[in-house]
Design brief:
- The chain has helices spanning 2-19, 131-138, 171-193; strands at 22-29, 43-51, 55-63, 75-82, 97-102, 110-111, 120-128, 142-148, 156-160.
- By secondary structure, the chain is of the alpha+beta class.
- The chain has a single domain, classed as Immunoglobulin-like (Sandwich).
- The strands form two sheets. The chain has a five-stranded antiparallel sheet with strand order 1-2-3-7-6, with no helix packed on it.
- The two termini are 13 Å apart.
- Mean pLDDT is 81; it is low at 4-20 and 167-176.
């Protein structure tokens, strides 16, 4: 009986550890990905995660935005763009804004530099997004876009790889697997007693 209790405790710990997973991709931002392409010394890199609770987290580091002559200003706005219309938001096509990061009204959980800077770090932790965003993300039709004073249509763009919670076990699915595992362990324990 002690072995069965140990197995059940291990199964509980393993199943709850699986619930905390996130699917993550790396993002590279360049002017060449803009539509049309932009000649810039600016660049950016980062990570983007779809969390098991259908929120997003990201960390983007960018540098060397083109400074506006006379003012030295760089960053204007930053967004995540995307669409559920097939083909829209893929490399080579633009899409509407789905999440404001700098400028507009960003959702809770986002920290970004103030407008005007040439370099900085943008982060988002457990940012709640719409179902439309999640669908566009699953299609691979979302991208980061950093707009500057010199390039108001966008200076740096980075495509976000397709992510869905098919790669992260949804909470109801994980719970059913956990309950099924417990039922199987209970059946094995009963057989051993007989």
């Amino acid at each position: 009986m002690r072995n069965v209790k140990s197995l059940i405790a291990a199964a509980v710990l393993i199943s709850f550890a699986g619930l905390a997973q996130a699917a993550t991709v790396n993002v590279v931002l360049t002017g060449a990905q803009e539509i049309p392409p932009v000649a810039t010394q600016g660049s950016g890199i980062g990570t983007f995660s779809l969390n098991a609770n259908n929120t997003i987290s990201f960390n983007i580091t960018f540098s060397n935005l083109t400074a506006q002559p006379g003012t030295g200003l760089g960053l204007r706005v930053a967004h995540i763009h995307g669409s559920t219309i097939l083909g829209t938001g893929l490399p080579g096509s633009n899409a509407p804004v789905l999440v404001d990061i700098v400028g507009g009204l960003p959702p809770a959980g986002i920290v970004a530099p103030l407008a005007g800077v040439l370099s900085g770090v943008m982060t988002g932790t457990d940012v709640v997004v719409s179902n439309t965003f999640l669908q566009a993300l699953a299609l691979g039709q979302t991208y980061f876009n950093i707009h500057s004073e010199v390039f108001p249509a966008g200076e740096l763009r980075g495509q976000i790889g397709a992510l869905s919670n098919a790669t992260v076990i949804p909470l109801p699915g994980a719970a059913l697997l956990w309950l099924g595992g417990l039922a199987m362990m209970a059946a094995v324990a009963r057989r051993r007693r007989v």
